[in-house]
């Protein structure tokens, strides 16, 4: 602004001729000189106003720059926060998706277990196999009654409630009962005689068939 002031001053001086000596100064020249001085003062005042305004503008520009920098910083922070919020949202969506799949898998497992349980409940349970025994006469001990045992190669016909047994040589009522009990069958002489009322246990015949009831 000082340079501008100097240039303006020299320009005005060039427009007006140099004043004459005081003795030769006319009234017209004096008026011109006064007008020039007045214009110079007004111009200087205007220049000072422009300088003050320019200074204020510079200060305002500095303030605006600082505000712009703050706005940029806040915008960057908001952008970072927005990115974090987006990551949190995606993570929450992933958690919901995993939880939904987990519940669906649990429902499938429960459905399969229920189906398996129904199949097991509807499957008929087979009755335990009926043991088959075929008492036979073993070697007679000295001075005693013939002992009965179950041979491994012979089996008798069976029914649901008892066993049909074919009398072998040397079989007796007590020997048959002993052999049955050895097979964990709950048989007694009474149950055998009651199940076979037509049999003469004192005269058993080889090939004769008797019925051995199975206890509960």
Would you list the SSEs in sequence order as H and E?
Answer: HHEEEHHE
**Main sheet, how many strands, which sense, barrel?**
2 strands, antiparallel
CATH topology-level name of the domain at 136-213? Membrane-bound Lytic Murein Transglycosylase D, Chain A
User: Over all CA atoms, what is the radius of gyration?
Assistant: 66 Å
The CATH homologous superfamily of the domain at 136-213 is termed LysM domain
- Spatial strand arrangement across the major sheet: 1-2
- Cα(first) to Cα(last) distance is 129 Å
Provide the structure class.
Answer: mainly alpha
Please state the overall shape, judged from the principal axes of the Cα atoms.
rod-shaped
Total of helices: 4
- Total count of strands: 4
Unreliable residue stretches = 125-160
Structure report:
With 216 residues, the chain is mainly alpha-helical. Among the domains are: 65 residues; 78 residues, LysM domain (Membrane-bound Lytic Murein Transglycosylase D, Chain A). The protein is 59% helix and 6% strand. The chain contains four helices and four strands. The strands form two sheets. Strands 1-2 form a two-stranded antiparallel ribbon. Helix 1 packs antiparallel against helix 2.
Q: What's this model, at a glance?
A:
This protein is mainly alpha-helical and 216 residues long. Helices cover 59% and strands 6% of the residues. Among the domains are: 65 residues; 78 residues, LysM domain (Membrane-bound Lytic Murein Transglycosylase D, Chain A, Roll), CATH 3.10.350.
